[in-house]
Amino acid sequence: MKIGILGLGLIGGSLGFDLRSQGHDVLGVSRQESTCQKAIALGNVDQASVELSLLADTEVVFICTPIGLIVPQVQQLIAHLSPGTVVTDVGSVKAPIVQALSPLWEHFIGGHPMAGTTDSGIEAAQRNLFFARPYVLTPVDTTPRVAITVVEEIVRSLGAIIYHCHPEQHDRAVSWISHLPVMVSGSLIAACISETDPDVLQLAQNFASSGFRDTSRVGGGNPELGVMMAQYNRQALLGSLQQYRHKLDELIHLIEQENWALLENKLRSNQQARPNFVD
Ligand code: NAP
User: Fold this and answer.
1) Most CB atoms closer than 10 Å: which of 98, 190, 195, 247?
2) Which of 15, 29, 31, 179 to mutate to test the pocket of ligand 1 (most atoms within 8 A of CB)?
3) Pocket residues for ligand 1 (CB within 6 Å)?
4) Same domain, 143 and 9
5) Domain match, 12 and 100 both
6) Residue pLDDT, tens place only, 145-201
7) What DSSP element (H or E) covers 138?
8) Predicted structure pTM score
9) In terms of Cα–Cα distance, which of 20, 18, 219, 11 is closest to 114?
10) Whose CA is nearest to atom 8 of ligand 1?
11) Positive or negative: CA dihedral 270, 272, 275, 277
């Protein structure tokens, strides 16, 4: 197939690696000429350009730009496409994107691969990034069956596990397991560096090991991505943050009261719940 990728960064570049290795003809468009040259040299794409017209003959286009650019980029792109071209995006938020693009392009289907790293840009792209990871598709009532099938087949070929849900359900679910953790983990780092004794702060930095590495990882990632999560999934994220604050207050109260039995109960039920989210 002739497949287009718009936005050659971590996700777009990683998709390019895998799609090329399956024999697809992969055409990439990015903002900077230097990124296009790197993507060709690294083997992410067969051809690359800063011109959207490169994607004119593609059968499917994956939009992999930062969230805030997905809608404006598709608005420009569609002038170059034939009506049957399937367009899908990889944005971490779905409702505002699907609401804007479904009326604009008949063969549009929203998507979100639940895979990534804290690095960004074409040099961060990895092979098999999507293997055995969830990939959410968010068709709506008007999404043509053919668009769903085409994207499903490509996603399945990446080795990803396909899920379907409504865009709004997606946004609430990722608010809990992706967007809230970015804010919580960021607040953890911010709290640590608020230590006023420089010697204690230095010791904390020296002592930090695997536990801190795990819990601070997503809070130490790309700030622009974090801002976009908050901006585009504001309502769901605020709801999750308020519930999280409530849970923290409960813990503070139990520790103040020295209610160790109830604290243990709470921590035990957390321990039992965790395997329902991750192995
Ligand atoms: P990224 O590494 O920063 O890549 C985005 C790329 O888009 C940049 O490398 C940039 O390329 C290009 N770009 C920026 N403006 C552009 C424009 N106007 N036209 C064309 N290309 C443009 O970001 P990413 O992590 O791959 O994220 C991309 C999308 O994937 C986002 O929508 C995000 O929500 C979603 N996503 C991210 C993750 C994650 O963990 N990172 C996971 C799932 C989904 P230049 O070098 O040419 O400027």
Assistant:
1) 98
2) 31
3) 6-12, 29-32, 35, 64-67, 69, 73, 90-92, 112-113, 116, 120-122, 225
4) yes
5) yes
6) 999 999 999 999 999 999 999 999 999 999 999 999 999 999 999 999 999 999 999
7) strand 134-138
8) 0.92
9) 11
10) 9
11) negative
CA distances to 9, 141, 200 from 171, in Å: 23, 18, 40
**Nearby residues of 131 by Cβ (< 8 Å), 6 or more positions away:** 158, 159, 160
Rounded to whole angstroms, the Cα distance separating 157 from 125 reads 18
Specify the residue with its C-alpha closest to ligand 1, atom 31: 66
180 shares a domain with 157:
no
> 225: pLDDT confidence band, cut at 50, 70 and 90?
confident
Distance 32 CA to ligand 1 centre (A): 12
234: its two tokens: 């504001």
Are 55 and 70 found together in one domain? Answer: yes
- Which H helix or E strand runs over 38? helix 33-42
